[in-house]
Batch of 2 targets.
Target 1
Amino acid sequence: MVPVLLRATNFLSHSDSVVDFSKFDIALVVGAKNGDKSQSNGAGKSSLFVDAITWCLFDKFRGSSTKNITADKIIKYGKDKASVEFIFSINDVLYRVYRERTLKSSNVMFQVKNNGEWKSVSNTLLNVNQTNKIICDFLRLDYSIFSNSIIFGQGFTTAFATATASERKEIISNLLMLNRYDLYEEKAKKYVNDLQNQVDVLKPLVQNIEQIQKEIENTKIEKERKQLELVDLRAEREKIDKKIKELVKQREKINSEALQRKNIIDSIKDIENQIEFLRKDIIDKESKKEKAREIIEIKKREYKDLNEAKQKIIIEDITQLENEEKKVSDEYNKLIESESSLKAVLNNDATKIKDLMAECDRIKQLKIGKCPVCYSNITDANKKDVIQILQNNIASIKSMYLKNKSQYEKIKSDRDNCKKVLDSIRDKIAINRQKDEERKRIEAQINIVKNEGYHQKNVIELLQKEINTQTEQIQQYENDLKLKQRQFESMKDIDYADKIQDIENKMSDSEFVLRSKDKQIEDLISIISALQKDMDNLNDALKKSIDAENKIKQLQNKIEMYKQLVLAFGKNGIRSFIFENCSIELEETINDLLFRMTNGEMKVDIITQKKNRDGSLSETFDIVISDKYHSDLFDMYSGGEQLRIAIALRIALSKLIAKRAGCQIKFIIFDEATSYLDEDGINKFVSCISAASNIFEKIIIITHQTELKDYFDSVIVVDKNDNGSFLK
């Protein structure tokens, strides 16, 4: 199993966190709070890389079980649904597990990628528990095996380094799940006690077997004598019953023939009715065909008329007309603007002329005063000169006024002509748009008429098929009718009532004799039944005694067997054998890892038994480390070397647990596996990870020691703020 992608949505503290495992082989995961990497704990590192994966695969995570995982423990506060998607590969095949939990329900999907599409691993619809089982069976892992083989948990190194030899053995035994044999041993002891109690209950049931067997034999002889009498009576009854059965068969045969004749008559009537109905239906369908043909002809004429109407509609180029309309409109607006400007000039000149003429008249009547031009005193001598100047100004303005008025009239005329042209173009556009709408309306009607014609043609074809089928049915019915009529002719003169009455008289006599024999048989059966009941009671008593004896023997054999199991499940039994074999395999794997870590300069020997002072052997778990200088016990080495050995041991255990489960594990998670490493410890830890990279395709290191980030290319930061956890 190699992880490919992990997505956690509203899971625990994560809103939407996505991990693409294809981007790294080894990743260091550190935490932060509001961007402060010194506050690493509680950021949501393990909840994403440990809890999200185990919950998605097994519906469990740290400190939980399936029964106590309530929605509020999974779903992010304020949300109504949490989900985790985990994609992984096995032998280059992609698999996907998607698990979600709402406030009211749970759902899980297990899929495989086939031809680019996700398809369910199972072909049947399964519930959550069934899908959970399929996932475990497919992976050959359960939550416990997965956690022990893939997750290098918090505190393992410290606990292993500070433990005694016997405590180390207990740690290894727990990881290998050998403590289950304690439960097996207790169960075997309980079975021994329970079986012994059953033996004590059965002992009083054993009785005198020979006396019971003699009473059974006497009862059996009497029963056999009565059974012989019963055999004779039954033989006589069998003859009578056989005769009645023959009469019944004769009656049934005659009734069958009578019923057959009645059925033939009914069939003839039914066939004649069917033929008549089909012929009327064919006539009705022919009428419908004719109506459909008439409709088709009408639609053809309508189609022709509409096409002719469409051809008559001639539409000018509306776009060209619109362009022309814009051009003329622009020219028209310019003329209006020029007209308005000239009109203002004319009005201004007319006002000036009027004012000058009024001034001229005023001066003519003025006897003394100031000149309006030069403001000198006016006398009779210079009055004429002033009036002449004013009249010259009036003449000049009038000349300009007449010139502008002529130009104004021309612009006004051009504007009116331009307006007529613009209105004409706009009328053409409106008319052509109406024509275009009319043509579209006609085209829509043409399509409707064509579809109606095609529909009627399909109706005719369908009706003709039905007519052909019904014609064939009529022919078949007519053949059946001829056959039924021939059958009726051969049976119409037979009197079945007389035959049946004669047979029933014979049956009545035989049934009277049969009832008499039945009474005699019934009495004998009662006697035999009473004898059988006595025998059954005696046999039950005999069987109970024999069964009690046999059961006691079987129980005693089982007691001996479970006593052997108590020994087998004990400390010196199976678990000792497994631990010894696993220790050998662990030693080989650890030394293989140490060879890679130390270039062959270090190896270990695992000692599982030690000699006591009295010469006896006792179990232990001592680790003897040998380097190029000397050999010594695990406890005598430095913390850095102990770390290296502990990690090598834990990796070897992961491989061993996965191998025992029958699965392939290609990744490992170090969840706070080291604490407060010094520089030497960090270097040795990094060398361990480097060696492990030859075994695992993906390695994830969860830590709060940010110093480690300088040793790894891929660093994932899980930051947490008031909105929850997210990846950086």
Target 2
Amino acid sequence: MKARVHFLWAVILGLLCAPGLILAQANINNVLYVGNGITTWGTGDIGSQINNAYAALPASGGTIVVIPQTSGACYSYSTPITFTTVHKYVTLQGSTISNDSPPGSGSCLNYTPMTSTAAITLDYMNAIGSQLSAGTGLRNLTLSNNGCITSSGCGSSATAIAIGNTHGGAYGATMENVSVFGFGTVFSVTNVASVGITWINPVLTANTLVFSLGNINGNHIVGGIINGNGKVLFQTANTTSELYDEGTTYFSNPGNPASFDYTSGGLTSIASFTNCHFESFQVGGTGANFFSGAVDLRLDSGLMEDDYSSGTGNWFINPGGYSLMIDGTKFLSRRPYTQIVLTTSGTRAHLRPINGSPAIITNWVGGSSAPYATLMPLTAYNGNSPAPWTIESPVTLESNLTVNGRLTKAAGSFRIDDPIDPANKYLEHSFVESPDMMNVYNGIVILNSNGEADVKLPAYFEALNKDFRYQLTPVGGYAPLFVAVEVKQNAFHIAGGKQGLKVSWQVTGIRQDAYANAHRIPVEEEKPPSERGHYLVPESNPRPE
């Protein structure tokens, strides 16, 4: 059914955009069409036409589709687009685009004023936001400001999308496949009801500021690219916000004091990022400086990296909230850092980062709350050899596992269905441990007429092992058994028994192959300074009173 709907939209929009063809009927089932020669909504610029179409929608609202120009050029306009009738919800959308369309696809609107005005305002909730406007918002649109595509913006003070003004904003609106270039601010929020905004695959580039968040606001971002902006986020004074992000790439958004700026004071905001990529390249910059200020921050997986190679960086994250949690996020740097996380008073940090630059990143936590930080760094692939990960939740493998390196564990066992009662019980045995890299060989031999026997060992025995140890046990009788000839040519000789006596034997050896010789396992080793006072299993090692 979905494929059929997409096909029908493609056919309709293809007809609308065909050269010389103008839609005679601009209202089809409360879906209004503007642009590309449609004169139903007046002869003013595209902003004026969209406003007139919005006024013509029924009281419950509807959809306005902007038909691209036949030439593919942007519509330039100076009349701000305003959707401000309470409970008259609207979706403004451009041409349908596919998942592999390039950034900037869809219908293009070029807002020419660079003064403190908004290109599009969504403000159709009442003051307390009693009714959700889910499904409304903007789709398949490119917004530019006077044609500017310059890193960090062109000095404009205009806003691309304003949520809220005199009413309650746009609770539950969706911004899907929206690209914004060259504005002073991409997205500004001023009303309490402006929560639950979802961004899907945004491309937000060359703006002075991306998110200006005021009052109680929540944004959810899925995918997309946010790059080349002066700053990603500014939280206004004495307000709080929530930001949840999955899979977005942030590149070269320098900011001052940080890309995500929560330093204005007041309430603590919440931000959570899953599998996001943060990348900084600030020539002459003091550090990557991604987050700073009053925010409770969580980072799950993903990547943070600093591509600048000169000098020493100060910090990646400078949290001023109550908590900071980092779990499996990989950090890369081409220059050393004083610390990756600079804590302030009151912040409690639980850090499980992956060190992608172990030769460069050596200091993780500094600042006044450093003594209260729990640091459990993970070692990642460093470009030379793979190294282990730490996983705290159970993992089940339904096939074979090959480890080309050292396996470190707190305990080990086999577990099978109990042979006596396999339907109701498991049977487990612990591994046999040793401080040495020891191999164990054993067997049974019957003594010959002289009370002796040769014990044959595998052909690789002496090549693999050294420092042999022996045990002999007579079975079914007593005999003063002894090793008459030690291992030579992969065999040893037993004597001291009588004909026909059964002997149980065991020989051990210490590995001497090339890998073992190069990777001896230390029996005891000192913890590095960053891990002292911390435990692999805290509940098994209570701290002293």
